């Protein structure tokens, strides 16, 4: 009887360790964050905006993400309907994603980004606010 109780306890302990290990190994979309490289950008038709995608757990940049949705608007200045196009540029530095856009006027701009990260089933979404300066 005592031998059986020890076996049950050992099995329960092993399952607990496996459960904790498996849940901590799985990432989620909330484990990633987009960060502005520069919070101020010179306004104009060839403005370049760069964001870094970071794994919050390690602080490391995440290279190779596929950016598939972008939106640039002036929501911070109360003009959400004022949008502009965004063009993806080649990735020069791993984990840093660059974009060309027309920041037609100085002020606050909101940049929304959605990406797929390799091995992550959920879409990683982010939103940053930058300031276009004259």
Description:
The longest helix has 24 residues, at 2-25. This protein has 1 helix and 9 strands. The protein has one helix spanning 2-25, and strands at 32-36, 40-42, 44-55, 66-74, 79-84, 86-88, 96-103, 107-116, 124-133. The protein is 18% helix and 49% strand. The strands form 2 sheets. The protein has a 5-stranded mixed beta sheet, with no helix packed on it. The chain has a 4-stranded antiparallel beta sheet with strand order 1-3-7-6, with no helix packed on it. It has 134 residues and is of the alpha+beta class. The termini are far apart. Mean pLDDT is 87; it is low at 10-24.
Helix content: 10-25%
Strand arrangement, major sheet: 2-9-8-4-5
Query: What order do the SSEs take from the amino end to the carboxyl end, as H and E?
Result: HEEEEEEEEE
How many helices? The count is 1
Spans with pLDDT under 50 lasting ≥5 residues? Answer: 10-24
Taking all Cα atoms into account, the compactness measure Rg is 22 Å
Biggest sheet layout: 5 strands, mixed
Strand residue content: over 45%
Instruction: State mean pLDDT (0 to 100 scale).
Output: 87
Structural class: alpha+beta
Give the N-to-C terminal Cα separation: 81 Å
The count of strands amounts to 9
- Overall shape: it is globular
């Amino acid at each position: 009887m005592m031998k059986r109780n020890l076996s049950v306890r050992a099995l329960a302990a092993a399952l607990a360790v496996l459960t904790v290990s498996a849940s901590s190994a799985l990432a989620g979309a909330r484990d990633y964050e987009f960060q502005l490289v520069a919070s101020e950008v010179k306004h104009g038709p060839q403005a370049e905006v760069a964001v870094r995608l970071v794994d919050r757990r390690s602080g490391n940049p995440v290279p190779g993400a596929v950016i598939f949705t972008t939106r640039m608007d002036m929501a911070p200045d109360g003009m959400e309907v004022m949008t502009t196009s965004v063009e993806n540029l080649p990735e020069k530095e791993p984990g840093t994603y660059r974009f060309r856009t027309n920041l037609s006027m100085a002020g606050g701009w909101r940049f929304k980004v959605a990406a797929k990260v390799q091995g992550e089933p959920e879409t990683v979404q982010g939103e940053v606010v930058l300031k276009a300066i004259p």
